[in-house]
Amino acid sequence: MMNLDLIFPEIFLSLSIMTLLMIGVFKKKSENLVYNLSIITLAILFAMVVNLFTINEQFIFNYSYKIDNLSSFMKALTIISGIFVMISSSTYLKSLNILKIEYPILILSSILGMMVMISSNDLIVFYLGLELQSLALYVLASFNRDNILSSESGLKYFVLSALSSGLLLYGCSLVYGFSGSTNFIDIANTSTNIEYGVIFGLVFLIVGLAFKISAVPFHMWAPDVYQGSPTSVTLFFAALPKIAALTVFIRFLFTPFINLIDQWQTIIVFISIASMIFGAIAAIGQSNLKRLIAYSSIGHMGYALAGLASGTNEGIQSSVIYISIYLVMTLAFFSCLFMMRKKNVFYEDIQDLSGLSANHPILSISLLIILFSLAGIPPLAGFFAKFYIFMSVIEQSMYFLAIVGLLSTVLAAFYYLRLIKIIYFDKPKQTFEKDHNFGLRLTLAVSTGILVLYFIYPGLLNELVSKIIVI
Amino acid sequence: MIAHAVFFYLFSFIAIVSAIMVTAARNTVHSVFFLILDFISISCLFIMIGAEFLGMIMLIVYVGAVAVLFLFVVMMLNVAQQKNQWFGSSKSSSHIPVGLLVSLIIFFELIIVIGGWKYKPDLLDSKTIIISETTTNTHSLGNVLYTDYIHLFQLSGMILLVAMIGAIVLTFRQREGLKRQSYISQISREKKDGVQVVEVPNNKGVKIDV
Fold it and tell me: Taking the model in full, what pTM does it have?
């Protein structure tokens, strides 16, 4: 008898999705109730996942589902950011009039898909988790269906994502054909000598995954989708799927294809360098804040991949730290966006920030901290994230990658500093409303607090992450 | 073995050519015809390697449901008509020759594969895949689907649920001012609700609240 305790969080989440759906269907006007219950569900789920953190590596369902420290940590990260995404965006949804019962349910199903992806140790399980996750995301992207930009972004994401899923499946079928198994451990055992079919499949798999985390050259969808979707969904896009996709990246590269490290290392280095440079350069000309953050996230994914490219355990850990801090920064930045509200209209243009400091000192100082952290200026958390990545890269004597990374940090600092200049030195233009609900304030306070205070005791996160041992 | 190779290449050739024709055909209805031909050729390939369950599922799901759905959509949107006018070909009945051609090829494919499968089992047999003689494909699929792969089965269920919710969210609209029939209120209607006796003064008329 297998140990069902290990997937109890997933079972609980599936059952609560169905229960919430029933509540939503049979109770009239239950949008708020379902929304709040979903947050409570996520909180319970978080406790369940944290409970699994210290156990050793375990498998269930014929070695197709893996519970280890990496999966528990990433699941906990996904869920906690899901909670913050939901509590910070409730006002936004209400004022756009798109708070329906299906919204929280789709978010929960997407999180379920991510949890399956994170734990997958088998090609089929991975693919089903991915589909569950992205199917919910397609609908969420076009959730504001009366808005033409939102529908466009949903359709665009759907078409391009279907294409990348096709490539991914082709890669899976090649890997299965040449190694004879869909299980990651079996693939690792059979692909000890270099077979071109497996390498071919590996390349397709990397392409499909790079699409999901919007790394260059598969980033084309990100700016349009980020801009078109409702801001709350953009926040979801920018934060959660990246965690799951990065975890799958780690799993793929370091379990089934660990013997092919010479083959995939060059590809990852290329993707990483291209994303870092492109993210830094393309963001300069943007005037929409959501588009800007899309390009910035492309750049950040480049840094996260640089950690993986080093091929060591330290590299993986630095990537995990990077993605955690990236999440905090994203949450903080988007809570600032949610605060730029006047009479139920949300402003998202760079010029709307003009002279923000005159009327909104607290919002501006938070934005200052967030942007400095995004640029990687010490002593904020963003600096340490980049520092760990470069440390692990340099330890492997990959100097070229480190130098390009540092140079693109300098390039990227330009547009972050430009935003700060607009906030502090331009003429005041707009005043926004100041009555924000508690959840939004809490999210901004907590995330900015983490960014500022991280340097006092970095061991808190680092010790947790150091328990993640993949190879 | 040589016959097997010949048929494999025949079906693959038809599948690839029709896949190209799906994108290359100028008329959308023709594209759908070729799509159907493509699906059938692929299901013939499946049947040839002994995966008769997969082949039949392909036939039922893709040809029976998806492709016919496409055909309906294309015909309802009237895309084909527009294309015809753009490229200046004759307006109607240009589907018939292409449709006939496609259905002829399908007919021969089915004769080959089902005839061979029924009457000469060794003709279309692949020796590389071990197929148990005693259990059918469907039986062995069921054996693993509900035991070893139960989590995948349940996950697929969740995916379908999400797809259903998504379709409803994106298309369902609560229309205002729609008049619906209600049998209860119709039956329980009484004379005093519907009939009003009013005295009408001369040359004045009355206003009646409805």
Answer: 0.84
